[in-house]
Every structure is written in C-alpha cells, then in structure tokens.
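Incident review: delayed structure delivery

Summary: a single-chain prediction request sat in the queue longer than the usual turnaround. Root cause was a stuck worker, restarted by the on-call engineer. No data loss occurred. The affected request and its eventual output are reproduced below so the record is complete for anyone auditing the incident later.

Affected input:
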Amino acid sequence: PVLRLLEAQLQDQRREHEEEMEALRNQVDLMQEELEKQQQAFLQTLQLSPEVQVEFGLQQEITRLTNENLDLKELLEKLEKNEKKLKKQLKIYMKKVQDFEASQTTVPAERRPHERNMQVAVQRKEKDFQGMLEYYKEDEPLLIRNLIT
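Output delivered after worker restart:
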C-alpha cells in the first residue's frame, strides 16, 4: 500500500513537471517569435535613411510614452478612488468620536469625577511634575473643575 501511494505521488509529480515543461516550452517559443519580429523590424530600420530612422525612433518613443501615460492615468484613478474611500471612512470615524465625546458628557455625575481622578492619577504616574503644569487650552475648564474638587 505504501509503495503504491509513493508510485502514485511520483506519477503525479512527473505529470505536473511535464505540464510545467510544456508551458515553459510554449513560452520560450512565443519569446523566440517576438525576438525574431523585433530583429526583422530592427534590420528594416537599419536599411532606412537616417531621417526615417529618427522618425521611426520618435514614433516608437511616443508610443511607449503614451502607454506609460495611460498606465499612470489608471493608477491615478485608482488612487483617487482610494482617497475618496478613505475620506468617507475618516468622516465616519470623526462622527463616531464626536458621538462618543457627546456620550461622555452625558455620563451621570457620580461616575465622571471618579473617571477623571483615574485619568489624572495615570497622568501623574507617567510624568514627574516639578512645580509647573502643562495643559492644552481646551482642557482648561476640566483642569479648573478638577482643582476645585
């Protein structure tokens, strides 16, 4: 039974290997055909006059730049769509933050001082104050209320 299983696995691997080899051969054939076409085009351009060679080179460069430009436009469109999506998400999150802040101001009074004291205690553990107090201007009413209580 083990030998049959190993033989079956070996045959499966051999079949996969042969399929991969065939795909690679086809790919090599296509590349060879493309190379031959490019060589023929190159030989034809060498037979042209210098002015026509320059014109042909310019046409090829214009084609290349046009394709590159189209790729960049496509990328720009994707980035703009992503930007719009992110802006919408930001608005949603900002609304949630505002709703959360509004809900915090409606918390019953007996819970708020305890939460503030916990917050102040955490701040004191994080910093070593030495006579001066640093705060944001918008935190001033909260600071005054905490000092009074």
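Verification: Residues 50-105 form the longest helix (56 residues).
Action items: add queue-age alerting; document worker restart procedure.
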